[in-house]
Amino acid sequence: MSLRGGHFRQSSGRRTATAAAVTSLAGVHDSLWTAATHHPFLDAVRDGTITDSAFDRWLAQDALFVADLLTFQARLLARAPRQAQAALVGGCSALVAELDWFEDQAARRGLNMEAAPLQATLAYRELLQRLDTEPYEAAITALWVIERVYLLAWTSAASDSTPFGEFVEHWSTPEFADYVAALGDLAAPDKHEDLVGDVLALEVAFWDMALSAD
Asked: What is the pTM of this model?
């Protein structure tokens, strides 16, 4: 869930990471990382067995989440140290473009983008609001987890036969991997293990939500 790689410009001089080269983290919360990045929802996308209703439910809720994330990230930018500003500005710009992209997808798929947020979306919104009161280091670490999970998850959903290849490619570009790496340079997950776990649990709940009515 979150920033979409198709809207990033690759910065000169920054190492180029590929989504295929990104591997899951070792250490604490291994099972949560696995659950959040190799979920049955993603398996169904990869296999082409996901129902339109489940995918569209997830897509509409993800658009709501992206709007919340943009609000959070703009506030985080306002209190970020100088060395973090370039990455966060690029992220905010990509989120604005992503919301435009969601509107295009909604028109194509006949989605109601005014749908009420479901419980998983509301829980994520509460976390983002809570992060406004946390130190910058904690907030940037949470943002990195959100984006890294998203990259790993959609990379795991890739296949040559999925009818959702457009979406998988959109959310697993090398530019997005580069952005995640930039956030990783700013994050301190070893100092915020509980927060990392909170984000991962919310990610699992968000995938679960998409399948809940099917």
From this structure: 0.88
How many angstroms separate the CA atoms of 180 and 74, rounded?
A: 17
For the chain, what is the largest distance between any 2 Cα atoms, rounded to a whole number of angstroms?
Answer: 46
- The pLDDT averaged over each successive group of 10 residues in the chain (214 residues) is 48 36 54 97 97 95 97 98 98 97 95 92 98 98 98 96 95 96 97 97 98 78
Q: Are 17 and 178 in contact (CB under 8 A)?
A: yes
DSSP sequence for 114-183: TPPP-HHHHHHHHHHHHHTTS-HHHHHHHHHHHHHHHHHHHHHT--SS-TTHHHHHHTS-HHHHHHHHHH
CB 170 within 8 A of CB 102: no
Half-sphere exposure (Cβ direction) of 9: Cα atoms closer than 13 Å: 8
Could you give the CA distance from residue 31 to residue 132 in angstroms, rounded to a whole number?
A: 28
The dihedral over CA atoms of 90, 93, 94, 97, expressed in degrees to the nearest 10, equals -160
pLDDT at position 29, please? 83
Which pLDDT value is given to residue 114?
A: 85
Instruction: Say how far apart CA 100 and CA 102 lie, in whole Å.
Output: 5
Report pLDDT for 2.
Answer: 46
DSSP 16: P
**DSSP state, 191?**
G
The rounded Cα 65 to chain-centroid distance in angstroms is 9
Domains within the chain, CATH numbers bracketed: 28-211 (1.20.910.10)
